[in-house]
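Title: Comparing notes on inverse folding

I've been comparing how different people in this forum approach sequence design from structure. To keep things fair, I'm posting one structure and asking everyone to reply with a full sequence. Here's the target:
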């Protein structure tokens, strides 16, 4: 799917270490991370970003200590309650992608409400991934191929099915730039298909310290790269 602006995806890593370095509980890092989310969402449209996908909770994150999972879901609740008015005002459409069947009922309701309230936004499509697994999406799309056709689908159809397996109500363009904060250099089951030709930027900055300026720097680095999509230069 073509669009005029950039699709930037971010693996927001380092909240826990940021807090530990300050002698605080990990949940404090997640809270500070939610402030970074606000900063980045505000800065994105000015940098030519039209789709922003943030990895907030992977399907493997259920294995974290229950208290940490609870703290994260409290933050998601607060975000879903408080932010939609502001998001709608600034033309941001919010979608939550990922599995819905394991989310608490009240969170599911808040998601539906937030998505409805921001549905008219056209400056930025903000996709927040909660209980997301790219591998599970691939398995689900493969199962659907077998059910529906018995023959291999096209790339376009398969991409749509991948999205639908993770509740993306509309197909998103492939990722142009993937940023991971926190110093690790891996994809951690995030948008594996959609990142086929993404440029990757890794930074040691912990997510709570990630600023609009650093987002601009990453976009600048992306713009300086030559994207060949498997072809030769020139
Ligand atoms: C990874 O850092 C971060 C997460 C698993 C949670 C991401 C959540 C937020 C940024 C806050 C809330 C988000 C929204 C949308 C309101 P980590 O805990 O793995 O850090 P570590 O690697 O230092 O332990």
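Reply #1:
Here's my take.
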């Amino acid at each position: 799917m073509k669009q005029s602006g950039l699709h930037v995806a971010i693996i927001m890593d380092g909240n826990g270490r940021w807090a530990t370095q300050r002698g605080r509980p990990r949940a404090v890092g997640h809270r500070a991370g939610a402030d970074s989310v606000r900063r980045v969402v505000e800065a994105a449209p000015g940098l030519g970003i039209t789709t922003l996908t943030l990895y907030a909770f992977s399907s493997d994150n259920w294995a974290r200590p229950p208290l940490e999972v609870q703290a994260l879901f409290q933050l998601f609740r607060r975000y879903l309650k408080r932010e939609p008015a502001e998001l709608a005002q600034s033309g941001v459409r919010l979608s939550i992608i990922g599995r819905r069947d394991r989310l608490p009922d009240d969170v599911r309701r808040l998601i539906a409400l937030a998505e409805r309230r921001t549905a008219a936004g056209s400056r930025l499509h903000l996709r927040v991934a909660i209980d997301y697994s790219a591998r599970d999406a691939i398995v689900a799309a493969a199962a659907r191929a077998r059910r529906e056709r018995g023959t291999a689908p096209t790339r376009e159809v398969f991409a749509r099915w991948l999205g639908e397996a993770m509740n993306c109500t509309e197909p998103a363009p492939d990722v142009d730039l993937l940023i991971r904060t926190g110093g690790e250099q891996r994809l951690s089951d995030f948008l594996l298909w959609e990142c086929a030709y993404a440029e990757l930027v890794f930074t040691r900055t912990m997510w709570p310290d990630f600023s609009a300026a650093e987002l601009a720097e990453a976009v600048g680095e992306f713009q300086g790269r030559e994207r060949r999509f498997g072809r030769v230069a020139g």
